[in-house]
């Protein structure tokens, strides 16, 4: 039990950190929430601000374009984070084997992640270029396609192409976290499972995956939050086009704020995006919690 | 141990070698084991016990030689196909599974039907007295309970051969003794064939039906605990087995007629003289004198003379010794005597009226004396 004095000391010691936390997260959050219930606009002259209740939310949620954008964002998030998870874990398992040049490969694999998103986006735009892109050239020479295509100029393929670029950039993060976790799996566990008759796949599913589920969940949650508010890579690669086929929810936040200068309405979009991310995270947490309960002990 | 030599050996290891690069970790191992035997591999840390066990299990590939289990050549088989079970020092329980699922894991993998699996798990849980733990996770168990679960997982499949790698090393001293008894009881009730690795010679002595003593990847001696204890094949085995270990004193032996005269130098004056009326060192011819290592266990150096005086002068001989240090140890009192260049330990009764610095008559029991070559350490 802490004494009265110690209790006060505890708060004094925590105060600076709490103050910083409040300054950088709580206040902006509260401010955004407040804005989302008003008709505030960005303008040079002070304008009267009115509290308009849920009007912004009603407007956002009844806008069919925004609904579509939400589904698009969900699609982007699920597919890209899903692929990053599978690819990341697979690569981590490979890098956890013993072979010559393992250390070098481990170092190289992080490179895509180390590249700035803008650079990555520009590089992939070149790869997808309809006239002299590497993808066209590769697929053509392999005989898979007979004509060069405009991969990100076609609404049918643009989103998946952006996802590919995003996966390439971000799977190393998942791979690194998974690799670090894999290195803590006790050798005896796999040995015991092997003696009990479990093959490699069964060993992976029953022993390895549950063991690394905790750290893996952390990185997947992180990636989900990032993916759901995706903006930069799409902005550079397609600008939301063609025909809005890559226009995600964040574009609406951006549009409302900076094109239409409606910061009240923009805030309501932002709150919606954050809210849906939160739902996804809770979902993750409940799924993995069941798998790891008592695990990694 | 004739049964072990015949075709029905449960485990037969022939000319097994294991190299890691240039390092020869196991050298020419030959072991044969009869069904129902409790074979204990014992030796100092790093001598290759775990590696040998791992080779038997198939988790480690061997460099050359063969391994037969229950009459079948298993040298190149996968661990899962060898009909074995293993208990690890770390227990290696699956942390994400309940005790019940841990025990039943091997059956689950082998697609045994649910009812059968439940019945078998319940059976071993009953044998190991862990029924009340079945729904817990390993993290919620004590060390001893985890140990039982690990054994349950091994027992439930009724394999031909059980492998134990230092299963008690992670337990505290008291629990170790309890579990030792438990393992012995399970061996007696199930009649299982067990290969058991330990670095603890007391565990080896108490559990084994036969002991394999190893050093630096070489088998030193295979025999019953009595054989190993009473007739160690070399000074290493003599020293390693038994606590306190055998006193290995340098002295001279001379064959004179019907006895061998032993002279063991003492720092304080004339050498200690004893007469061995037994066969003595085999290589010592009549009239010859040789310098050698004389081995006597602490319990062969007692204070019997102080109490009864009943020396027969043949197997039991008395000689005065200067006690250097006296260490009461509850049931016994150990006294250190400087003899033959070593600190020989005598095992006296707890109430022996002795103190350090005294000269007291010590009774030497020569019936179980051992002789070793000084250079090679081999038994003479
Ligand atoms: N994977 C390995 N690579 C190289 N050397 C090894 C390996 N495993 C064990 N050794 C060596 O083999 C010897 C025996 O090890 P081990 O069987 O674990 O000994 P013990 O179980 O008797 O303590 C040790 O010297 C150890 O360093
Ligand atoms: Mg070992």
From TrEMBL, chain A:
Topology relative to the membrane: Multi-pass membrane protein
GO biological process, one term: transmembrane transport
Keywords: Cell membrane, Membrane, Transmembrane, Transmembrane helix, Transport
Domain ABC transmembrane type-1: 70-284
Gene Ontology CC: plasma membrane
Keyword set includes Signal: no
Family according to the record: Belongs to the binding-protein-dependent transport system permease family.
The protein, known as: Probable sugar ABC transporter, permease protein
Organism whose genome encodes this protein: Roseibium aggregatum (strain ATCC 25650 / DSM 13394 / JCM 20685 / NBRC 16684 / NCIMB 2208 / IAM 12614 / B1)
TrEMBL record, chain B:
Compartmental location: Cell inner membrane
SMART domains: AAA
Residue ranges occupied by any ABC transporter domain in the UniProt entry: 11-241
Keyword terms: ATP-binding, Nucleotide-binding, Transport
Taxonomy, superkingdom: Bacteria
Family annotation (Gene3D superfamilies): 2.40.50.100, Nucleic acid-binding proteins (2.40.50.140), P-loop containing nucleotide triphosphate hydrolases (3.40.50.300)
One Gene Ontology term, aspect cellular component: ATP-binding cassette (ABC) transporter complex, substrate-binding subunit-containing
Topology relative to the membrane: Peripheral membrane protein
InterPro entries: AAA+_ATPase, ABC_transporter-like_ATP-bd, ABC_transporter-like_CS, ABC_transpr_MalK-like, ABC_transpr_MalK/UgpC-like, Mo/tungstate-bd_C_term_dom, NA-bd_OB-fold, P-loop_NTPase
Pfam families in the cross-refs: ABC_tran
Gene Ontology MF terms in the entry: ABC-type transporter activity; ATP binding; ATP hydrolysis activity
An annotated GO BP: carbohydrate transport
Family according to the record: Belongs to the ABC transporter superfamily.
Descriptive protein name: Probable sugar ABC transporter, ATP-binding protein
Gene source species: Roseibium aggregatum (strain ATCC 25650 / DSM 13394 / JCM 20685 / NBRC 16684 / NCIMB 2208 / IAM 12614 / B1)
Lineage: Bacteria, Pseudomonadati, Pseudomonadota, Alphaproteobacteria, Hyphomicrobiales
């Amino acid at each position: 039990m802490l004494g009265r004095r110690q209790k006060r000391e505890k708060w004094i010691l925590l105060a600076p950190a709490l103050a910083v936390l409040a300054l950088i997260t709580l206040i902006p959050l509260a401010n955004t929430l407040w804005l989302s219930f008003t008709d505030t606009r960005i303008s040079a002259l002070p304008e009267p601000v009115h509290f308009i209740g849920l009007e912004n939310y009603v407007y956002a949620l009844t806008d069919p374009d925004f609904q579509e954008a939400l589904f698009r964002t969900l699609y982007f998030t699920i597919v890209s984070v899903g692929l990053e998870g599978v690819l990341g874990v697979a690569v981590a398992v490979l890098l956890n084997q013993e072979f010559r040049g393992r250390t070098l490969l481990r170092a190289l694999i992080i490179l895509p992640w180390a590249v700035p998103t803008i650079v990555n986006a520009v590089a992939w735009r070149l790869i997808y270029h309809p006239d002299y892109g590497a993808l066209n050239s590769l697929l053509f020479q392999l005989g898979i396609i007979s004509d060069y295509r405009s991969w990100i100029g076609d609404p049918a393929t643009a989103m998946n192409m952006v996802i590919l670029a995003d996966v390439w950039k971000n799977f190393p993060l998942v791979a690194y976290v998974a690799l670090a976790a894999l290195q803590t799996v006790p050798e005896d566990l796999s040995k015991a499972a092997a003696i009990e008759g479990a093959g490699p796949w069964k060993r992976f599913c029953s022993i390895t995956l549950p063991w690394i589920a905790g750290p893996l969940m952390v990185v997947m949650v992180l990636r989900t939050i990032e993916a759901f508010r995706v903006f930069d890579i799409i902005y550079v690669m397609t600008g939301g086009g063609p025909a809005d086929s890559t226009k995600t929810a964040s574009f609406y936040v951006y549009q409302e704020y900076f094109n239409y200068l409606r910061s009240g309405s923009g805030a309501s979009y932002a709150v919606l995006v954050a809210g849906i991310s939160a739902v996804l995270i809770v979902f993750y947490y409940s799924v993995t919690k069941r798998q790891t309960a008592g695990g990694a002990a | 141990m004739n049964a072990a030599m015949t075709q029905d050996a449960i485990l037969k290891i022939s000319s097994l070698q294991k190299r890691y690069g240039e390092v020869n970790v196991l050298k020419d191992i030959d072991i044969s084991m009869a069904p129902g035997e409790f074979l204990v591999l014992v030796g100092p840390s790093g001598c290759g016990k775990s590696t040998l066990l791992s080779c038997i299990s198939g988790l480690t590939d061997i460099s050359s030689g063969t391994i037969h289990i229950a009459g079948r050549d298993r040298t190149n088989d996968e661990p899962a196909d060898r009909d074995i079970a293993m208990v690890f020092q770390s227990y290696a329980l699956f942390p994400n599974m309940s005790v019940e699922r841990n025990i039943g894991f091997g059956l689950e993998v082998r697609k045994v039907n649910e009812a059968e699996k439940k019945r078998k798990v319940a059976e071993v849980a009953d044998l190991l007295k862990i029924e009340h733990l079945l729904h817990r996770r390993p993290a919620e168990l004590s060390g001893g309970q985890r140990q039982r679960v690990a054994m349950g997982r091994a027992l439930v499949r009724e394999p031909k051969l059980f492998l134990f790698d230092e299963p008690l090393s992670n337990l505290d001293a008291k629990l170790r003794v309890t579990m030792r008894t438990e393992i012995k009881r399970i061996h007696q009730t199930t009649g299982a064939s067990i290969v058991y690795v330990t670095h603890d010679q007391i565990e080896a002595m108490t559990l084994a039906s036969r002991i394999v003593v190893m050093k630096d990847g070489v088998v030193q001696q295979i025999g019953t605990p009595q054989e190993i204890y009473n007739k160690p094949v070399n000074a290493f085995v003599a020293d390693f087995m038994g606590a306190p270990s055998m006193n290995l004193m340098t002295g001279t032996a001379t064959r004179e007629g019907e006895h061998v005269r032993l002279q063991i130098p003492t720092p304080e004056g004339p050498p200690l003289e004893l007469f061995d009326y037994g066969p003595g060192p085999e290589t010592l011819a009549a009239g010859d004198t040789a310098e050698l290592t004389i081995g006597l266990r602490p319990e062969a150096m007692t204070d019997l003379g102080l109490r009864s005086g009943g020396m027969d002068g043949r197997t039991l001989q008395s000689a005065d010794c200067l006690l250097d240090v006296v260490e009461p140890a509850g049931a016994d009192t150990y006294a250190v005597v400087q003899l033959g260049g070593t600190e020989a330990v005598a095992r006296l009764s707890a109430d022996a009226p002795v103190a350090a610095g005294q000269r007291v008559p010590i009774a030497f029991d020569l019936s179980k004396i051992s002789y070793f070559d000084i250079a090679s350490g081999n038994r003479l």
